[in-house]
Amino acid sequence: MSGMGAILEPGMLVRHPDKPDWGLGQVQSNIGGKVTVNFEHAGKRVIEISRVELIPVFDS
Questions:
Q1: Tell me, what's the pLDDT at 43?
Q2: What is the predicted pLDDT for the residue at 7?
Q3: Which residues make beta-bridge pairs with 34?
Q4: What's the Cα-to-Cα distance from 44 to each of 2, 3, 5, 21, 41, rounded to whole Å?
Q5: Where are the domains of the chain?
Q6: Phi, psi of 36 (to 5 degrees)
Q7: pLDDT at position 49
Q8: pLDDT at 2
Q9: Are 15 and 8 in contact (CB under 8 A)?
Q10: Which of 13, 22, 48, 52 could lock onto 39 through a cystine, CB 3.0 to 4.6 A?
Q11: Strands of 43-48's sheet, edge to edge?
Q12: Along the 60 residues of the chain, how does pLDDT read in single tens digits?
């Protein structure tokens, strides 16, 4: 895993670049290139990090 996906860890806040309506998401897990995120308005989603570069949020 490379890029931003490598730094994502449980508890971090992220946004989906193509789904702003999903709202803020909290990383639940990051295993084998698949990141599980619980989004405010879309619930729990599994994101394949090689296909979507989630945007870390450091100040919400």
A1: 98
A2: 87
A3: 31, 48
A4: 23, 23, 17, 14, 9
A5: 3-57
A6: -95, 125
A7: 93
A8: 56
A9: no
A10: 22
A11: 43-48, 34-39, 25-31, 13-15, 55-57
A12: 556 677 899 999 999 999 999 999 999 999 999 999 999 999 999 999 999 999 999 885
Residue 17 backbone dihedrals phi, psi, to 5 degrees: -65, -30
> Per residue, what are the HEC states of the chain?
CCHHHHHCCCCCEEECCCCHHHCCEEEEEEECCEEEEEECCCEEEEEECCCCCCEEECCC
Q: Which residue has the tokens 């989906």?
A: 16
Distance spanning both ends of the chain, measured CA to CA: 26
Q: In this structure, are residues 36 and 44 in contact, taking their beta carbons and an 8 Å threshold?
A: yes
